[in-house]
Design goal:
By secondary structure, the protein is an alpha/beta fold. It contains 15 helices and eleven strands.
Length: 324
C-alpha cells in the first residue's frame, strides 16, 4: 500500500556458543511489534559459518543465511554468549561485521556481543555497555571505548549496546519505541508480560543482583521476610532475635554469605523498593519513604544521595516509566 513505511530488515548475527536469550528475547519483541503494529519487521538469523548454530545451553538453531550473503539491511544486532571468545579470533567474521555495519542504519549488540563490535573498530571513540561482569575486560581490551558499567543499555548515535541477557529485551523495546512510538512499545511489553521498558540508564543492579541469595535456608528465609516487612522494625537486634542468634553472630553470617552487614542490606532493600515506587507511581516522597520503611523523606534522601548520587526527585525525573 502506498504511503506505508518499508519493512525494516533486521539481521541477528549468531555463532556457536551464543546465549539463547540474547537472540530470542529481542527477536520476540520485534516479532510481536510487527504482529501488533501492522507493519512487520523482516527478521533473519545470520550465521558466521555453517547453517546450524548450537547455543551455550545446547539449543540448536538453523540459521537463515550466511553472513556473507546479506546485503541490504536496516538493523544489525550482534548477540553475545560464551562463544564470543572464539568468534573474536575469526578475522573473516570481524570483516563481515564491519561490512554489514557500514550498510545498516543502526547497529546493536547484546551482552558480550559488544566485544565483536569493538574488535571491528565500531566502538572506537564511542560509549558502550555490556554485561557488568565483562565491563573491565571490554575497557581493557578496547581502551578507546568509554565503557559504562551500570546502564541497561547505552545509545551513542546509531550504535546501541546493552547489558547482559534480559537487557536485550529492553534494547529491543527501545528500538520499537523509536520506530513505532511509545504506545506500541508498551503494548508489546504488556503482551510479553515483561517490565514496562526500563529506561536505558537504569542500573543493572538490584538488591538481589548485588547481594545474590544467601547460601543457607535460614538466611534465605530472613531475606524474604525482610522484603515483606520493610515498614516494620528491622533493627539488627530484631533480626538477630528472629534468627535466634546474637547480633554479632548475625552480622558474621551476613558478611560471610552476602558480603554486607544486616543494616546495609536492610537499607538497600528499602532503597530498592523506593526506586520502584518512584519509577512507577504517583506517590509523594513522604509516602514513598513511609512505604519503603524510611523514617522520613529526609532519611530516604540521604540514602539516595549516598548510594545513587542523586536525590529521590532527581531519580524520579530521570527514570520514571510513565509521563507525569
Amino acid at each position: 500500500m502506498s504511503g506505508m513505511p518499508a519493512v525494516r530488515r533486521v539481521a541477528f548475527l549468531v555463532y556457536d556458543g551464543i546465549q539463547t536469550l540474547d537472540l530470542t528475547g529481542p527477536w520476540e519483541v520485534l516479532h510481536s511489534a510487527g504482529a501488533r503494529g501492522g507493519r512487520p519487521y523482516e527478521l533473519t538469523s545470520v550465521a558466521a559459518s555453517g547453517a546450524r548454530v548450537r547455543t551455550s545451553s545446547g539449543l540448536v538453531i538453523e540459521a537463515d543465511a550466511q553472513v556473507g550473503a546479506v546485503e541490504e539491511l536496516d538493523t544489525l544486532i550482534v548477540v553475545g554468549g560464551s562463544g564470543t571468545r572464539e568468534a573474536l579470533g575469526d578475522p573473516g567474521l570481524i570483516a563481515e561485521i564491519r561490512r554489514l555495519a557500514g550498510q545498516a542504519r543502526r547497529v546493536a549488540s547484546v551482552c558480550s556481543g559488544a566485544f565483536l563490535l569493538g574488535e571491528a573498530g565500531l566502538l572506537d571513540g564511542r560509549t558502550a555497555a555490556t554485561h557488568w561482569a565483562y565491563c573491565e575486560q571490554l575497557a581493557t581490551r578496547y581502551p578507546r571505548v568509554r565503557v559504562e558499567p551500570d546502564p541497561i543499555y547505552v545509545r551513542d548515535g546509531e550504535l546501541i549496546t546493552s547489558a547482559g541477557v534480559t537487557a536485550g529485551i529492553d534494547l529491543a523495546l527501545a528500538l520499537v519505541e523509536e520506530d513505532h512510538g511509545r504506545e506500541l512499545a508498551l503494548e508489546v511489553a504488556r503482551w510479553l508480560v515483561v517490565y514496562a521498558r526500563r529506561p536505558g540508564g537504569q542500573s543493572q543492579f538490584s538488591v538481589q543482583l548485588a547481594n545474590q541469595i544467601a547460601s543457607t535456608p535460614p538466611l534465605q528465609e530472613l531475606q524474604g521476610w525482610i522484603g515483606e516487612h520493610l515498614e516494620g522494625d528491622l533493627a539488627v537486634a530484631t533480626l538477630a532475635a528472629r534468627m535466634h542468634l546474637s547480633e554479632r553472630q548475625l552480622t558474621r553470617r551476613f558478611q560471610r554469605e552476602l558480603g554486607t552487614s544486616p543494616a546495609e542490606y536492610v537499607e538497600q532493600a528499602r532503597l530498592e523498593h523506593a526506586r520502584g515506587l518512584l519509577e512507577d507511581s504517583e506517590h509523594g516522597l513522604e509516602q514513598v519513604a513511609r512505604s519503603s520503611g524510611f523514617a522520613s523523606a529526609e532519611v530516604m534522601r540521604r540514602a539516595f544521595r549516598r548510594r545513587l548520587g542523586a536525590s529521590p526527585s532527581e531519580y524520579r525525573d530521570r527514570f520514571r516509566l510513565s509521563p507525569a
